[in-house]
């Protein structure tokens, strides 16, 4: 091979002891080595024998018989490599002789790869002891020649690869097939010869791998930087979409930076710690968003359950953002119902004088409880109690349609009258004075939302429609009818309930207003199910 123009050859075999073929074989090898003095690097090995009595110690094994022919110890190089730790890359062989041995009080020794470079008149383009091996592929990635092809003069003289040896550095030694005994690497098991070739090529090209930053504190800081940055930006804006986008962008940036640093500069960045930290941070963000959403759903549920039926609450909570919008305020077209007891002020005064306050409260609670049941059965929302008056809304917070809500409200008014008649029958049997009520309804636009002070908020409706319904309820006493509703409501229910006009009496603040009532004996109709 040297005759073919190779600059130097390294024999990756430790020639310890005598040849199994006898002294003549050693003599022939020594003569051949002497003829190429200064061009051949021989392998030495550092052994660490274990002895129970004398303990352990490092012993240098050298090819003593061939030291003189090759030019002395300057032509020797260690074949030892540092065993790779879990998760760490394979170190360059120079790390063993230049760092491990001095750390144990021994003289530093060059690796076989370093000796081959020296004999070939080359120098390393990198700090070999600090580098890790950058493998080029699986076993056989380098140009390979079988020994028998070189030893056959006739074949070697016309071999097509003979010319590729000119000015080359050649390593010679045994190889193993992938999957058999060898050195584990990312590309599978590699022979010692392949590792020697890789180390030599890394030194020549300067493309060995090294960590960046080189010191542990700076690597730790670099690993923490993406996690801390994402955490800080996540505090700046709290939306789950923004936070997960930050985590995703940071992961892509970290992996991309690591890829380009490895490909372009042959430096590996700490990726496992920041990637794991970002994934954990993303999980924490997701868990926090889930808990916040659950808290918000419970808050909305507690808020709406005070006003509407459970089925309506479930419908509202199917879209939490829309539910929150309902609480903040919006305009809806609804039907408002007011119901008030007739002569209740005088009744309260009389029973107070008679010492029957407890009876008064009991009767009022019984009445209001029944009215709430009727309103809920017809899909209405109990807005508030004003003393003995009940205010209900049909179409808020969820509407079944303007006409459907108006029909439900008018039917509810009639059902409230029927329920009061049943209550009066029961009270009469207990010698309790009966009650009478009036119901006013109006349809139109209202503002819906939570209204009040920070200490006390009520989900309610406000607007002219509310005022009109209240005044129509008061007008029932003047016109002596149980139920009154406005023109808009009458138009909505006309096809099914045949409303009767009661003229256009003056309404406070609104002037003459057309009003309508129900027929004397309307056909019975079951209440619609809540929610549609």
What is the helix content? 40-55%
Task: Report the major sheet.
Answer: 8 strands, mixed
SS class: alpha/beta
Overall 3D geometry? rod-shaped
Number of helices in the DSSP assignment: 17
Question: Which value, in Å, is the CA radius of gyration?
Answer: 48 Å
Strand fraction? 15-25%
* Distance between the amino and carboxyl termini: 94 Å
Uncertain segments? 522-526
Strand runs, count: 19
Instruction: Give the overall pLDDT as a whole number.
Output: 84
Could you characterize the architecture of this molecule?
The chain has helices spanning 23-35, 67-70, 94-103, 112-119, 147-151, 153-157, 192-205, 216-236, 240-265, 272-305, 310-317, 320-328, 344-353, 357-377, 402-429, 464-479, 487-497, and strands at 8-11, 40-47, 59-61, 76-78, 169-172, 183-185, 188-190, 210-211, 267-268, 330-341, 381-386, 389-394, 437-453, 456-462, 483-486, 500-501, 506-507, 511-512, 515-517. 46% of the residues lie in helices and 17% in strands. The chain is of the alpha/beta class. The model is unreliable at 522-526 (pLDDT under 50). It has 17 helices and 19 strands.
């Amino acid at each position: 091979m040297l005759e073919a123009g190779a600059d130097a050859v390294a024999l990756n075999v430790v020639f310890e002891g005598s040849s199994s073929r006898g002294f003549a074989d050693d003599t022939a090898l020594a003569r051949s080595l002497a003829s190429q003095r200064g061009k051949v690097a021989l392998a030495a090995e550092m052994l660490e024998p274990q002895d129970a009595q004398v303990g352990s110690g490092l012993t240098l094994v050298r090819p003593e018989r061939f030291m003189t022919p090759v030019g002395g110890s300057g032509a020797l190089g260690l074949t030892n490599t540092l065993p790779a730790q879990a998760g760490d890359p394979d170190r360059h062989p120079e790390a063993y002789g230049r760092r491990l041995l001095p750390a144990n009080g021994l003289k530093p020794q060059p690796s076989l790869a370093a000796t081959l470079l020296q004999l070939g008149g080359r120098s390393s383009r990198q700090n070999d002891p600090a580098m890790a091996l950058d493998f080029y592929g699986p076993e056989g990635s380098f140009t390979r020649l079988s020994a028998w092809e070189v030893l056959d003069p006739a074949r070697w003289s016309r071999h097509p690869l003979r010319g590729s040896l000119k000015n080359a550095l050649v390593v010679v030694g045994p190889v193993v097939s992938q999957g058999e005994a060898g050195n584990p690497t990312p590309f599978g098991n590699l022979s010692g010869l392949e590792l020697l070739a890789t180390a030599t090529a890394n030194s020549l090209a300067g493309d060995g791998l090294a960590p960046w930053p080189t010191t542990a504190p700076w690597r730790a800081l670099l690993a923490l930087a993406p996690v801390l940055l994402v955490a800080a930006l996540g505090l700046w804006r709290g939306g789950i979409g923004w936070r997960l986008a930050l985590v995703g962008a940071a992961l892509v940036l970290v992996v991309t930076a690591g890829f380009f640093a490895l490909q372009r500069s042959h430096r590996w960045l700490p990726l496992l710690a920041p990637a794991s930290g970002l994934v954990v941070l993303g999980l924490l963000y997701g868990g926090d968003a889930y808990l916040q959403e659950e808290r918000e759903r419970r808050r909305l549920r507690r808020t709406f359950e005070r006003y509407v039926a459970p089925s309506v609450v479930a419908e509202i909570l199917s879209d939490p953002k829309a539910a929150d919008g309902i609480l903040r305020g919006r305009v809806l077209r609804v039907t408002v119902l007011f119901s008030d007891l007739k002569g209740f002020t005088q009744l309260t005064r009389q029973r107070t004088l008679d010492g029957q306050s407890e009876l008064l409260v009991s009767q009022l609670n019984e009445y209001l409880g029944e009215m709430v049941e009727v309103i809920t059965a017809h899909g209405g929302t109990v807005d508030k109690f004003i003393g003995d008056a009940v205010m209900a809304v049909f179409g808020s917070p969820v509407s079944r349609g303007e006409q459907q809500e108006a029909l439900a409200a008018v039917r509810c008014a009639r059902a409230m009258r029927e329920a009061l008649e049943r209550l009066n029958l029961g009270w009469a049997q207990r010698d309790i004075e009966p009650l009478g009520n009036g119901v006013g309804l109006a349809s139109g636009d209202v503002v819906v939302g939570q209204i009040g002070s920070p200490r006390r908020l009520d989900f309610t409706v406000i607007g002219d429609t509310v005022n009109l319904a209240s005044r129509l309820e008061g007008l029932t006493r003047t016109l002596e009818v149980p139920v009154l509703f406005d023109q808009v409501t009458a138009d909505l229910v006309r096809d099914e309930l045949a409303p009767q006009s009661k003229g256009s009496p003056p309404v406070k603040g609104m002037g003459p207003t057309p009003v309508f009532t129900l027929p004397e004996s309307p056909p019975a109709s079951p209440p619609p199910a809540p929610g549609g």
